[in-house]
Write a structure and sequence with these properties.
Two copies of one chain form a homodimer. Chain A is an alpha/beta fold and about 260 residues long. Helices cover about 40% and strands about 15% of the residues of chain A. Chains A and B meet through helix 2, helix 8 and helix 10 of A and helix 8 and helix 10 of B. Bound molecules: adenosine-5'-triphosphate (ATP) (2 copies) and magnesium ion (MG) (2 copies).
Chain lengths: ~260, ~260
């Protein structure tokens, strides 16, 4: 029975997509079956996985509106080793779906799309866009837990309380709590006192939920997407790869193995 | 007659808010009358300007829905010296406004709000959220031109074509072109070959529109928001301050002075 994790934070540029791709690749390299779903119309998780979003015949949007089965939309990524449900600009059409007031709020589109595909994967990750709009709400309603990447800087810290509040509200409407899988410190620069201060605040505030693994700022992580590769395939021995492999091991331990 | 500039890029974390705050402060320090409008429900431009978003009696949302005049919502920031129309979580309610299909598409709310306030300022800047949703469309429809901050990395480059396409479509529906005020390279690290490569591509592709001023990666720019100050007031002689003052001078020259 796979577990579904939303990778979400409405603050932009905190490492959501980088974490979605590289955690998926690291778990796949450990032998787990992983599905990554790109729920951002920017399609960064798609191109970062080496898939040309302009050429995909079907995207996650087609599955969300019931035009195609998820299994038909999904492609296998190589050498990364995980499956991907790609996104392209069609996904921007999701907000138009919102305009039919007579229908139920379409927050459940992704949850309904995932029914039946859970047995094929150990883990399903969903890369959310930088907003608390309909696409992100779909990610949160479909998830069993939420992994929150946070850059150790002021604005990223400030936005966390909004996200926690939204998660609480979703839990209330679902009738069960939407747990925090963990808070992940990203782009960490130990030479910066700002980074250290914010990190301390995160450890205090999220004591049980914060991952021990910290992702350092590492230029290889920014270079890898231009080759369409996870950092594990682009530069296997760099600090970025090591950190995401360590995260995969900690993630498995916390979630009770695969 | 003030000119209205949207500071927009749907890619997250590229320096939109940092540019909105520090360009406003730099122009104010040169004696220009500046209004900064926060159109992001995250409210980063509000807190980065030293205003507590939880305490403001009125926000830009109240002006957009016609409950208050823009001049009543606006506060003066000190020591920064510009006026600010603050944002808070209420702005997330904008997407609910979308759900009334019988009304005209509410893309014009900001444009209508700004009518009449143009004589009081030399420049009006609008900080957009990281998305191409209703808030950003309001920014683009209200603007005379668009300033696009770009981090010199792969995903930020990839998203530019989507933004240019959206701007073209808006120009068609407005009946006149929505010009690009300029492309601004942010968080620039000259030691990184990725940064240099992307910068070269930007210079080639946006030859006339790219600003000569480049904003370097500078930790003071990330520290200043935690003190609620523009970098010019937090660390006046740092590279970040020098860069934004140089940008203000180049910006004025291009836009034909104040
Ligand atoms: N640890 C890191 N070290 C260096 N660069 C990084 C790191 N993590 C991410 N990056 C780079 O920083 C930028 C932002 O990361 P990314 O796009 O993954 O964030 P995001 O939260 O998904 O952004 P968005 O809000 O737009 O979806 C990208 O250019 C990425 O390559
Ligand atoms: N030149 C710079 N050097 C160092 N840090 C910077 C620089 N510019 C911005 N930052 C920091 O990088 C982070 C992202 O910048 P900022 O929040 O301004 O981007 P944004 O595009 O407004 O993000 P969002 O998409 O969430 O609105 C912030 O923590 C900011 O303090
Ligand atoms: Mg992303
Ligand atoms: Mg911003």
């Amino acid at each position: 029975m796979s577990r579904i994790f939303a990778i979400a934070n409405q603050k932009g540029g905190v490492g959501k997509t980088t974490t979605a791709i590289n955690l998926s690749a690291a778990l796949a390299s450990l032998g787990d079956r992983v599905l990554l779903i790109d729920m951002d119309a920017q399609g960064n998780a798609t191109t970062g996985s080496g898939i040309n979003k302009a050429l995909v015949p079907l995207s996650i949007y087609d599955a969300l509106i019931g035009e195609a089965q998820l299994s038909r939309v999904t492609v296998h990524t190589a050498p990364a080793g995980y499956d991907l449900a790609p996104a392209n600009g069609d996904l921007a059409g999701l907000s138009v779906v919102e305009a039919r007031p007579e229908a139920a709020p379409p927050y459940h589109l992704l949850r309904d799309t995932l029914v039946g595909s859970e047995d094929r994967y150990d883990w399903i990750f969903v890369d959310a866009p930088p907003a608390l709009g309909l696409a992100t709400l779909n990610c949160l309603f479909a998830a069993h837990a939420v992994l929150v990447p946070v850059q150790c800087e002021y604005y990223a810290l400030e936005g966390l309380s909004d996200l926690m509040q939204t998660m609480r509200k979703i839990g209330e409407s679902l009738g069960h709590q939407l747990p925090l899988a963990g808070v992940l410190r990203t782009m960490y620069d130990s030479r910066s006192s700002l980074c250290n201060d914010v990190s301390e605040q995160l450890c205090e505030h999220f004591a049980d939920a914060i991952y021990q693994t910290v992702i350092p700022r590492n230029i290889r992580l920014a270079e890898a997407p231009s080759y369409g590769l996870p950092v594990l395939n682009y530069s296997p021995s760099c600090k970025g790869s090591q950190a995401y492999i360590a995260l995969a091991e900690e993630f498995r331990e916390r979630a009770g193995g695969s």
